[in-house]
Amino acid sequence: MQPMNAGVTKANTGLDGISWNILGQTYVPKQLSENSFAWHATFPPGTFVPPHIHPTQDEFIYMLEGKMDAVIDGKEFIATAGDVIKLPMNIPHGLFNKSDQVIKCFFWVTPTRKLYDLFWAIHSMKEQNPPDVVALSAKYEIMFLPPPE
Fold first, then answer.
1. If DSSP codes are grouped into helix, strand and coil, which group holds residue 123?
2. CATH fold group of domain 20-144
3. Where are the beta strands (DSSP E) in 37-87?
4. Contact partners, residue 59, CB within 8 Å, separation at least 6
């Protein structure tokens, strides 16, 4: 991985013009280094990230717009604009847009590990069906959990 370049990533753009479709959401990478990776995310109504664990990363989400329902270590939370969601490594979490409004938020993880490469791999899948996404993610250090009973 190359060192981070100094400068500004302009609004409405990502690194190298990248924009990914990840499980129906749009992720736009804003910053990448070995130590951290940050992206802007748009969650249309009804989209979600199923419960999963990052065994090698801390993850954070700064809410810009909308209302995010989260299940973190078995507890339910609601985050709105201005809130920060803190997801320490090894803590199971799932993120849900149960509203009729778009969510816009800013994610970052530390360290980067294999997450940037995972997003490329998911984006490049012909069809993002759950079993294939789960199997692929495990190869990139993200462990999806079985659905609750």
1. helix
2. Jelly Rolls (2.60.120)
3. 37-43, 48-53, 58-65, 67-72, 75-80, 84-87
4. 87, 93, 107, 108, 109
Say whether pTM exceeds 0.85: yes
Q: pLDDT tens digits, residue range 14-44?
A: 998 999 999 999 999 999 999 999 999 999 9
Confidence of residue 147 (pLDDT cuts 50, 70, 90): low
Compute the distance between CA of residue 45 and CA of residue 98 in angstroms, rounded to an integer. 6
**Domain edges within the chain:** 20-144
Task: Give whole-number Cα distances, 59 to 87, 100, 127, in Å.
Answer: 5, 25, 26
User: Is omega for the bond preceding 111 within 30 degrees of 0, making it cis?
Assistant: yes
DSSP letter assigned to residue 7: S
Q: Distance (Å, rounded) from C-alpha 73 to C-alpha 80?
A: 19
